[in-house]
Amino acid sequence: MPDIWALLVGSNFYFTGSARSRNGQNISLNNLSGCVRDVDCTFNMLRNRGVKEQNISKLTASTSENGERPIEPPDCWPTFKNIQRKLVDITKRAQPGDIVYFHYSGHGVQRKAVQVPQTDADPLVGMALVMTDVLEGEPFLTGYHLGLWIRGMAEDRNLRCTVILDSCHSGEAFRNAGDFVPRDITATISSMILQSDKQADREAESAYLEHLSSHNTRNSIKDPRPWLLNPKNATIITACDKHETAGERTIDGIRQGVLTHNLLHVLRDFDGPLWPSHSHLLHDVRRRIRNIHGHERTTQTPLLYGDGNIEVLGTTAFHQSEVAAITPRDGKILIEVGACQGAAVGSIYDLLCPAKIGLSGHQDVGAQARVEKVDSFSCTARLLDNSHEVDATWRAALRYWAFHPDFIIAVVGDEPPYPGFLDNLREKLRVYEGLRLWDGPLDSDNQAGLFLETTRKGPFRILDKERNPVARLPSVQADDTMAPEKLAYTLSHLARYHRLLDLSSMPAFQQFRSDRFILDTKPQTLRESETLKISYKYLGPSDTAWISIFCFNASWGIDKIEPEGTEPACRIRALEVPEQIEMDVYVPNAAENDVSGPIEDR
């Protein structure tokens, strides 16, 4: 079993000082109340999970009675040098395959690292954690510094890292000391770069390069962009989007950060041998925040960077299937996917029970539910088996999609390979509600979207609605005893592909007007091995929009290319320009008719 190492950082107290003042006068930051408690509660969570006490380090700054300095001794304060020292110590002591957990609670701001180019698409490169002594002239801990250190752990030492940042990382707000009452106090701090900031950049990069050199892997950092945005062997969870405010408030009688409180509450609900994946944890935390604090004027949406499919405080990799949160309500199940995500009446969803997660990392199907009503962003389903006690920790994953209106597959050609073949095929297609196999005459009320050409020997052929052969499909032979199953799989995927390609058939379809959304692809004409570049911008009228980008590939599968991982959509703000997406192009042979593998969506 791998060891778990943790560094927990929380700062309630901040020194006053003039080093970052515009006019040379002493300035102060509002002290906080819940950050040290965040650390203590996280410490208790780790100990209850079996983490060795000697493997957990804490750096905290508690406000003393006289309010002049922290209660703790200086070597226990949240400062740049103390955090650097603790992380270096963990890196030296941990063995490859061990797990590292870093938690920070406190103020956060937006600061440019000295050597790193800043772009709007890089929300973490300018993120800075406010150390307790920054107003005395000591450095911030920037996303650039933290990224270099965690990268050394994750990539070179092969340590599995989780980073939790319960702070703002926007340039407009500190972590809020009130109950979600915004206070714009960053105007008191000068944006000047001090010598201590420059030295911190040099030390962080030097330590990283020295670490690589000691393992014979040294190379220069030619592109010091924020590794935290797309980390390898690591997961980053931040308290909010870069334009939101992270809050702390009194919850259940104690003062805590909203992210930390809800994160620990969710983890307490898991008592099985494994904990949830980071994505599962994030979904539950978001929902708790939305349900408990959604009525408040200031909201926060925790975000995840990196691999969300790895177990929290573990190494188990969970399955990659897209899952949706559920809420039991009045004997039915509310699933958080709707018509905009392709949900339809008649779809069957597997309900995954976290308490039955197998040691292989794959979640067992505990129940199934059939969709009975669809709204734009949610649907209501009925349990097919009422013997299960389903609660809000369960997840829903699509098992069989449905078609509304019906999608007709017409049978043409020779006699089927044996009597009863079409009945067998119909039985296999029956699970896809609305997908009909039609062997009668066609008319205006029964128009085929696909044709199945049957045969007594040789391969079956599938034709499009103009009766042209569909290329690049796996071959199914008439004498194959599994022919009905294989044809049902291929036909259902092809029908879904064509139905989704025609977006106007979706119940909630609404085309973005050109003055509200811009999608640009370059170049317009591509050759083999060229790179397709995709950029997009949302123009309003609302402040934000949630988007997903899919590619309909040449092998009849549907690939999600943005966002990566298990997140169903990513949020962009109006007029914000996201990072450009690049795709390498492969052009298959148009005449290739026999593909060995089945159709796959990714």
In short:
19% of the residues lie in helices and 25% in strands. It starts with a strand and ends in an 18-residue tail after the last strand.
Word description of this protein:
With 602 residues, the chain is of the alpha+beta class. It folds into four domains: 4-306, Rossmann fold (3-Layer(aba) Sandwich); 324-400, Beta Barrel (Thrombin, subunit H); 407-504, 3-Layer(aba) Sandwich (Rossmann fold); 517-584. The protein has eight helices and 28 strands. The strands form eight sheets. A six-stranded mixed sheet has the order 2-1-3-7-8-11, sandwiched between helices.
Q: Approximately how much beta-strand content do the residues carry?
A: 25-35%
Q: Under CATH, the topology of the largest domain is which?
A: Rossmann fold
Query: What is the architecture of the largest domain at the second tier of CATH?
Result: 3-Layer(aba) Sandwich
Biggest sheet features? 6 strands, mixed
Rg to the nearest angstrom? Answer: 28 Å
Biggest sheet: strand arrangement: 2-1-3-7-8-11
For the termini, the CA-CA separation is 32 Å
How many helical stretches?
8
- Catalogue the unreliable spans: 116-122, 170-187, 215-226, 356-362
Average predicted confidence as pLDDT? 81
Give the total of beta strands: 28
| Domain module count | 4
Give the proportion of residues in helices. Answer: 10-25%
CATH class category name of the largest domain: Alpha Beta
GO molecular function: cysteine-type endopeptidase activity
Pfam families: Peptidase_C14
GO cellular component, one term: cytoplasm
InterPro entries: Metacaspase (IPR050452), Pept_C14_caspase (IPR011600)
